[in-house]
Amino acid sequence: MYTFDYQRPADQAGALAAAQGDARYLAGGQSLIQAMKLRLSSSERLIDLGGVAALKGIRVDGGNVVVGAMTPHAAVAASAEVRRALPALAELAGGIGDPAVRNMGTLGGSIANADPAACYPSAVLGLGATVHTDRRTIAGDDFFLGLYETALQPGELVTAVSFPVPEKAAYVKFKQPASRFALVGVFVAKTAGGVRVAVTGAKGSVFRATPIEQALNASFTPEAAKAVAMPADGINADLHASAEYRAAMISVMAGRAVAAALAR
């Protein structure tokens, strides 16, 4: 690990003031610290957001579930408000990593890191969420740009994410058993504007499965999702699964997600 200056501000203003030059925000640290230990990442300054209480919390605001950026996964999973208004999000959070990861990892850290196999990006894209920062709001459809790449500008701080409450939704993933990251994860949401299907773990970034969306808009059934043959072009291939296998699993996981959504 390279040397760095560590700061832990008490409020958001202090965090923004410290974000000068080669600085990085530290949320849960579940990805960043590991990358720094391996010397895959380095910064002159780390700004620990753990002391910024205003960035934590959950509330239901009209038709939206609003989650503060520094809210741990475990808090989202355990929240009675989230379980009542948007159970798919609570279940997604409860399936991330292990208890240690869920108690340290945060929503804001997850989406800012934009790991291609992370679970939360599928909820942001699948629900058409809005990402709030200290400078602006960013539509979920515009937030994830590529492999570990987002629309965030240098020094921009994610403060919260607003998830619209859908008519029905569910998230199902085929997980890597050691890490519990998604080899293929699918978030399906039936909304007033149509069905949205977001896929994680299958490409360099989360994406919407348009062919499955079209099939489900015509017939919101597990059979309709499973009948779609997703192309293998651009799909990840590694020691865990071939591109063809992952492509096939997208339709299978989508079908299971629809079944879970209908069962609520």
Automatic annotation (TrEMBL):
User: What are the alphabetically sorted keywords of the record?
Assistant: FAD, Flavoprotein, Oxidoreductase
Q: Which SUPFAM superfamilies match?
A: CO dehydrogenase flavoprotein C-terminal domain-like, FAD-binding/transporter-associated domain-like
Pinpoint the FAD-binding PCMH-type domain residues: 1-168
MF terms (GO), sorted A to Z: FAD binding; oxidoreductase activity
Domain of life, per lineage? Bacteria
The record's Pfam families line, in alphabetical order, gives: FAD_binding_5
Entry EC no(s): 1.2.99.2
Q: What is this protein called?
A: Carbon monoxide dehydrogenase, medium chain
Q: Which organism is it from?
A: Piscinibacter sakaiensis
